[in-house]
User: Fold this.
Amino acid sequence: MRQRHNHCSPAAGAQPETPGQGKICWRCQRESARTSLLCDNERCRAIQPVGKGITYFDLLSDDGKPSFDVDTVGLRQRFLRLQQIVHPDSFSQKEDVERKLAEAQSSWINHAYATLKDPLWRARYLLKLQGREIDEKDQIADPELLMEIMESREEIEMAKTETQVADIRLRNEQKLAGVVDSLSQAFARGDLAQARDLTHHLQYLRRISQTVHSWEPSNA
Assistant:
C-alpha cells in the first residue's frame, strides 16, 4: 500500500523552502538539485515542483547559461527528453499531487521551449532577465524605424497581386534575418540598450510578416 504524505504535499508548481541551494522533496524530505525534475534520491524519485528561481536556460540550454545564440536542434532534443520524463500521461495512475506536479512541470517546459526557440521571444526573455522588459504598448521612438514601418504597411495596402506581396515578404524576411544577426552581436557584447532597440525592431517586423501573411486579393 502506497504511503501518503498529504501533510507535506505541495501545491502544483510550488517550491518547498530549502536550507541549501536545492529543493526539499515533498515525499522523502531529501534535498535535490533545484533543476531536478524528479527527486535525486534513487529510492524515491518522486516528481518535483518547478525549481524556485530557475530560468528556461537552466533546463534547456546546453550549458545552462543565458544566451541569444542557441542550438535549436539540441534545444528540441532536450525539450523532448524532459517532456518524456514529466508528461502527464505517465502520471495518470499516480497520486493527485503527482498528477498536478506533472502538469505544472510539463506546462513550464512547453512554455520554456516555445520561448527559447523563437528569436523574438528569446530576446524579450533575455531582456526580462536583465530587468529590461519590453512592454507591448511601447511606442516607436526611432523616427527611421517609424517611417520604415509606415512605408511597409502602405506597400501592403497598395499591393494588388501575389507577386507584389511576395516581393514585400522577401524583403521583410531579409530585414528580419539582419535584425536577428544584429541582436546576436548586441547580446554578445552586452549592449542591452541596443538589444532592446533591436528587439523592438524585430517585433514590428514580425507584425509586418503577419499582415503580409493575412493579405488576400480581395483586400487590395
About this structure: Residues 152 and 208 are 7 Å apart (CA to CA). The chain is about 55% helix and 0% strand. The chain has a mean pLDDT of 87.
